[in-house]
Amino acid sequence: MKFNRRDFLKMGGGAGIAIALGGGLWNWTQSPSPLKTNPPGVERWVPTVCGQCMGGCGILVRVIDGWATNITGNPLHPVNRGTLCPKGIAGLQGLYDPDRIRSPLKRVGKRGEGRWQPIVWEEALQRVTDLLKDLRKNAEPHRLVVLGGRYRGLMRLLWERFMEAYGSPNYIDNQFRWEGMPMEGLFLTQALHQSPIYDFENAQYILSFGVPLLDSYWFPIHALKAFGHFRRGRVGQRGRLVQIECRLSITGIKADEWIPIRPGTEGLLALGIAHMLIKEGLYHKEFVSQKSFGFESWIDPEGKPHLGFKEFVLSEFPPRRVFEKTGVPVETIIRLAREFAENQPSLAIGYRDRPFHQMAVAALNGLVGGIDRPGGLLIPKSIPFQPFPPVIKDRLAQKGREMERIDEGLSKVFQIDRPYLFAKNSVSGSPYRPEVLFLYYTNPLFSNPHPEIFRKALDQIPYIVSFSPYMDDSTQYADLVLPDHTPLERWQDDPMFLNSGVPVLGIRQPSIAPLYQTRATGDVLITIAKKLGNEIQKAFPWKDFEDLLLYGLRGIFDSRRGDVFGLEFDESWIRILQRGGWWDPSYKSFEEFWRLLKERGGWWDPLYDFGEWERLFKTPSKKFEFFARGLKKVLSLKEKEDSFFLPHWEDKKKEGEKDYPFQLHIFKTMSLGGGRNANQPWLQEIAGPHLFERWTTWIEINPKTAMELGITDGDWIWIESPFGKIKGKARLYKGAMPQVVSIPFGLGHRSGGRWAERIGENPYHLLGLELDPLTGQPLQESIGVKIYKA
Fold first, then answer.
1. What strands lie across the sheet with 503-508, from one edge to the other?
2. Residues of CATH 3.40.228.10 domain(s) within the chain?
3. Taking CA 392 as the corner, what is the angle to CA 391 and CA 393, rounded to the nearest 5 degrees?
4. Beta-carbon neighbour count of residue 404 at 10 Å?
5. Residue 440: what are its φ and ψ, rounded to 5°?
6. Ranges of the chain whose pLDDT falls below 70
């Protein structure tokens, strides 16, 4: 627009009149019409639990006239104390996703075509009931399989109870491997089938072997808060964090030191550090001599000598050999060992790698006496729910439960779920094929390495029912969809643990009425059980999931421990009382307890009981074991050498080393780490904050490597493995090791709505399906790749 002298004078005159009127003209022009005035809405804040990840943060949902308008942290919830991460704030976008499934759907086209017909709930429930009745009529209840994902608490127990009453052994956990804690390492050393807890905030020195503590840890906000306390929360103390991994992650950036290491060799470095601790006599001699087994060589009751951890590590893992495989200098290994021993309490943490690599990291904690002490590895107690009454099974259920699991989950060394064996056996038909598959909170066609094997498995299963509220990759293959409420619309418990080892129970309650014709899956399961009748119906005396929740909470009320959430001051007071044998809760009756749970957000028990060694060590020796004697009892392993039962490193060359010279590393970011939030554009916008990347898949390459290949920053390139190839955007990153290329996980959905579908690529298509012989879990650190311009 051009202004001449006359226009300028007109504007100046108008401004003078406005000034003379004292702003009245401005107020008049800006005031809304009285007809458009909106009266103030009815506002309320609803305490509940975030469902965006497994972190279990307490949230307050602002509701105006029945609509959720804002999410903030609950200051009373001990997990996050009022703080919240970007994923939590984006929870509103999960609720209001325009592509949500709004009613039950039945497939009317071929699988994967996306042709659906809405049906009413009564018809949908009757279809499932008839299907399950037919299976029992044919004496094949074991052919029902449930593949479950990221959830816990009473909902998991409800699924397991349903399968027990129905007569199938095939409840299979399909949680993401990289979100899991090192459970196998804990089993080998302490014979416990659960996850350990690390007391970060009270440690003085942390060796992190590739754990994404500040990137995508399984409870991110609590980990961030603990890191703040570890660093600056103690007067006169500042903890030191050493991050050991193959790329400079956000955790590495925030750490005191980043140590680059070749992917998959973290367990070997742990053994090199153990070598120096033993060689220089820096280990905790009292703990090792009194609370451990297998450190020294020993003789069994039959008179046969066995190799001990000390002798094995000193002979096999000198720093020079460790350096040749890991790339970590000898002097660094020696220094790390000395720092780890001198700065107490010290803590070693690792991810869910091969079992004996996990055991190597666990052995470091054993060497410094870091088991069950402040700043060490802790074993939390479970939430004291009221136990369900025993299931009275009919003859069909008894026979079905006696069948071998389709994933061979109870027939292997580690009695854990093996979703990959489920997929392979579903294709091969051994020991049998499933007839009906239920998918709940899991998306195997996206979230599992080598998803093609799951696609083949789904093709072999006659009927698939998904309970997802979104049309994800796997739900596209379903025959029937019974959409669940979103977390902001349903009742659910959310049990978890703090870093200090104490149990916390968050109460998830509906913030608003359901937006669409969806139903809580817990309610649906109870309804189906009642429709099946007879003993199955009797196993479910509750009218709905809220009724079941109240039943379970009775156990907490009767436990006479802990209290409902309160201020941080209350935490210390409860501890003082309980140490003295007193219990003075905020409630007098169960009704008051239930009311306060809903008002404050949950219950917790802030006192951790140290020194309960019988609870901590279920091993044959009733001690921490450097020699996994429990495995020695397994028939198929009797002929193994002693070194097999000690922490050791299993060398594995990457596939096609000559043709595929680079090593693949897949990492997770906070925003899209679970692979489940790609339908939320706020999180797409912050997918890669360290490189300002969004809405696409990027590939991190060392600048020198890129220059040798003629690749510049921003080029579109192919990355190819022996199993597949994907295209991404090259990003030159100084935090990348020269022979390693890194790709984020979370993008690349083939379904999921307008903000997820066909956005980026899924790096799991580059992975093969080599399984660990002990756990049945996929091995991923040995994949070689090549890169070239698109």
1. 492-497, 503-508, 602-604, 563-564
2. 197-378+619-645
3. 100
4. 16
5. -135, 120
6. 1-39, 176-180, 410-415, 633-639, 652-657
Q: 105 by DSSP, 3-state: which?
A: strand
Q: How far apart are CA 600 and CA 45, in angstroms?
A: 11
| Predicted local distance difference test score (pLDDT) of residue 38 | 62
CA–CA separation, 126 and 521 (whole Å): 15
Which CATH superfamily groups domain 197-378+619-645? Dimethylsulfoxide Reductase, domain 2 (3.40.228.10)
What whole-number distance in Å separates Cα of residue 768 and Cα of residue 783? 8
pLDDT number for residue 599 = 97
Structure-block tokens of residue 585: 């809760």
Q: Which of 430, 378, 397, 445 is nearest to 608 (CA)?
A: 378
Cis peptide bond upstream of 345, omega within 30: yes
CATH of domain 105-177+385-604: 3.40.50.740
113-135: burial string, b at 16+ Cβ within 10 Å, e else: eeebeebeeeebbebbbebbeeb
pLDDT recorded at residue 180: 65
Length in residues, the chain: 790
d(CA 506, CA 423): 34
DSSP H or E stretch at residue 19: helix 5-20
Q: Domain 662-789 has what CATH class?
A: mainly beta
Q: What is the DSSP string of 256-315?
A: SEEEE--TT-HHHHHHHHHHHHHHTT-S-HHHHHHHEESSS-EE-TTS-EE--HHHHHHH
pLDDT of residue 573: 77
Rounded distance between C-alpha atoms, residue 219 and residue 499, angstroms: 10
Place of tokens 């989950």: 409
CB 696 within 8 A of CB 726: no
Which 3-state string (H, E, C) describes 582-601? CCCCCCCCHHHHHHHHHHHC
Q: Which residues contact 359 (CB under 8 A, 6 or more apart)?
A: 184, 185, 188, 189, 267, 628, 647
Q: In whole angstroms, what is the distance from residue 656 CA to residue 784 CA?
A: 6
Domain with CATH 2.40.40.20 in the chain: 662-789
Cite the residue boundaries of each domain of the chain with CATH code 3.40.50.740.
Answer: 105-177+385-604
**Cα separation, 590 vs 552, whole angstroms:** 12
Using one digit for the tens of pLDDT, what is the confidence trace for 705-729? Answer: 999 999 999 999 999 999 999 999 9
Residues 552 and 387 sit within 8 Å (Cβ to Cβ): no
Residue 193 pLDDT: 86
Which tokens belong to 647?
A: 């922490």
